[in-house]
Amino acid sequence: MTALLELRGLTRSYGSLTAVDGVDLSVLPGERHALIGPNGAGKSTLFATVAGTLRATGGGVFFAGEEVTALPESERARRGLLRTYQHSSLFLDCTVLDNVALAVQRVHGVAHRFDRAARRFRRTEAEARDHLESVGLAGRAGERAAALSHGERRQLEVAMVLAARPSLVMFDEPTAGMSAAETASFAELVERLPDDLALLIVEHDLDVVFRLARRVTVLHLGRVLASGTPEEIRADEAVRTAYLGTARTDELFTGDPR
Ligand SMILES: Nc1ncnc2c1ncn2[C@@H]1O[C@H](COP(=O)(O)OP(=O)(O)O)[C@@H](O)[C@H]1O
Ligand SMILES: [Mg+2]
After folding, report:
1. Which of 20, 72, 212, 219 has the fewest CB atoms lying closer than 10 Å?
2. Residues ≥6 apart with Cβ < 8 Å to 212
3. Relative to the alpha carbon of 35, which ligand is closest?
4. Are the beta carbons of 76 and 5 closer than 8 angstroms?
5. pLDDT (average), residues 139-167
6. Residue ID of nearest Cα to ligand 1 atom 9
């Protein structure tokens, strides 16, 4: 199968510091891929460079068979490569439904003749309700977004990203700041997303990683330290050492393999 996303020697420097250093990585259509690594490993930099928020200083990003390295984030998004934004993208005074409807409208555009506009409005609303249903927020459609809890806002952000009809969605630490219960329901939501949607998830909660990912890449000092199935990564000595030094090696990976 051809990769949907392919990074070839991807590099990003900040002055003399090379935060991402020659990374090769690929994500197949529908693949669930997690990116992990200790603080400062370069995960957020890699993430931003793939999304187009930051420009690469070397190497290339290829998406759906085309090079996108020099394209702006909006153009990558138009092609189906989307990232979630933490909190920044919500209109808190609008209803939950309107937030998603606005995201749907961004894709369809706005019709100017009244009869068409009215039809399109109904279609937009129906599509927005479907996205809310997929993230488990259908029951909250009429409430103000400000009334949602932290975890529910995250669910809403996912609905808004789905509205853009992505083929790959990138999440940067989606469960950061969530309670254990919110983390569990977020992981469930991600598991229920359409099978043909590829995901690249930066996540520090390794239980979540091993639950969701079919492939895990470990970044260390800007480079790929290991890449493999969750089982292979769990068993990898170099990975354990990178996280913890030599002590307490067994406490790192305690979650149930799935
Ligand atoms: N805007 C920046 N300017 C300079 N150095 C940065 C910047 N952002 C990150 N870094 C450095 O790049 C390295 C990787 O950081 P980052 O990508 O945030 O790693 P991670 O997300 O894995 O913790 C770190 O050494 C960090 O200090
Ligand atoms: Mg980070």
Report:
1. 72
2. 32, 34, 187, 190, 191, 199, 201, 203
3. 1
4. no
5. 94
6. 45
The phi, psi pair for 255, rounded to 5°, reads: -65, 160
- In the chain, % helix, strand, coil (3-state, to 5) comes to 40, 25, 35
Pocket of ligand 1 (CB under 6 A): 14, 17, 19, 37, 39-45
Q: What are phi and psi of 173, to 5 degrees?
A: 50, 60
List the one residue out of 153, 6, 5 whose CA is nearest residue 90.
153
Q: Please give the domain boundaries of the chain with CATH numbers for all domains.
A: 1-80+166-258 (3.40.50.300), 88-165 (no CATH)
How does residue 130 score in pLDDT terms, banded at 50, 70 and 90?
very high
pTM recorded for the entire structure: 0.88
Mean pLDDT of 73-99: 89
Q: For a pocket test of ligand 1, which of 10, 43, 45, 200 has the largest count of ligand atoms closer than 8 A to its C-beta?
A: 45
E-assigned strand segments in 54-130: 58-63, 66-67, 81-83
Q: Which backbone phi and psi does 228 adopt, to 5 degrees? A: 180, -170
Counting ligands in written order, the one closest to the CA of 12 is: 1
Provide the pairing of β-strand 58-63 with 5-14. Answer: antiparallel
Instruction: Tell me how far the alpha carbon of residue 122 lies from the centroid of ligand 2, in angstroms.
Output: 40
C-alpha distance across the termini of the chain, in Å: 24
Task: Give, as residue ranges, everything with CB less than 5 Å from ion ligand 2.
Answer: 43-44
